[in-house]
Design goal:
Elements: H1 11-14, H2 16-29, H3 39-42, H4 45-54, E1 71-75, E2 105-109, H5 110-117, E3 155-158, E4 161-164, H6 167-175, H7 181-213, H8 216-228, H9 231-238
Antiparallel strand pairs: 1-2, 3-4
The structure holds zinc ion.
Length: 243
């Protein structure tokens, strides 16, 4: 995973998204539990562009970088319905009120979207589902990593495979299939072998440049560049394959 960074919220979510949001709340008050959503708003090209840019042009979960047509807009808290696990029943409604919420939106690859994440959204035992807390998410402790959080608190990476360092990390790997052959063979292994090598070369060239030239600007540019690199790449560079 890569820690997502949120840039400026696209206008369409503020204008049209807000209108839809208010309509949904009215329906909720009327007792409706199944809602329809306007994909032309939450998955508008300006939203996708912003999400792809903010997530380093990678899937928010498996880090695959595939052609843009294969990327969809992901709702971390699923909008229509949610499931506690892979084979558990689908419960309605989902987090309909977050359908157009910028901080709930991410970019996701086709495999993660359709095969793995889908509408899975489990919580830690003892935490309170927002549906039972006046639609407030503050009482929730999700069992899968929020792409806005630092994944290095929960995951280690070695030889193209992820290892958990927390229960949330373990759930994330298992429920989202991050070590599934579909991900490791087709999407990650070949891609990351090349990417790691390429970024290593960039890193060494950059360090050489800093060593020869110094200066705050160069160090600043280096820091920004490093932030764009994924946790996996950082592990590779820092040789943290020690799990
Ligand atoms: Zn993915």
């Amino acid at each position: 995973m890569i820690q997502a960074v949120k840039g400026i919220c696209p206008d369409i979510l503020i204008s049209k998204g807000r209108e839809e949001h208010l309509k949904l709340l009215e329906q909720y008050k009327a007792g409706i539990v199944r809602y329809s959503f306007n994909k032309a708003i939450y998955a508008h090209e300006s939203v996708k562009e912003a999400l792809i840019r903010d997530n380093g042009e990678k899937c928010c979960f498996c880090e695959s970088s595939s052609p843009r047509d294969f990327h969809a807009v992901e709702h971390y808290r699923p909008k229509t319905a949610y499931r506690d696990g892979i084979d558990t029943e689908r419960k309605y409604p989902g987090y309909f009120w977050l359908a157009y919420e910028w901080h709930n939106l991410f970019i996701i690859c086709n495999a993660c979207n359709t095969v793995f994440k889908n509408d899975i959204f489990p919580l830690e035992a003892g935490s309170t589902r927002a549906h039972h807390n006046n639609l407030k998410t503050e009482g929730e402790i999700p069992s899968i990593i929020n792409p806005l959080d630092d994944p290095s608190q929960h995951l280690r990476y070695r030889a193209y495979k992820l290892f958990p360092t927390s229960d949330v990390g373990r759930n994330t790997i298992e429920l989202l299939g991050l070590n599934h052959p579909l991900q490791t063979d087709n999407l990650r292994q070949n891609y990351w072998a090349q990417k790691l090598q390429k970024d290593r070369e960039e890193y060494y060239n950059l360090m050489k440049f800093i060593y020869l030239n110094g200066g705050a600007e160069v160090v600043s540019a280096y820091s920004n560049r490093l932030m764009r690199w994924s946790y996996m790449i950082k592990c590779g560079l820092e040789d943290k394959f020690k799990y």
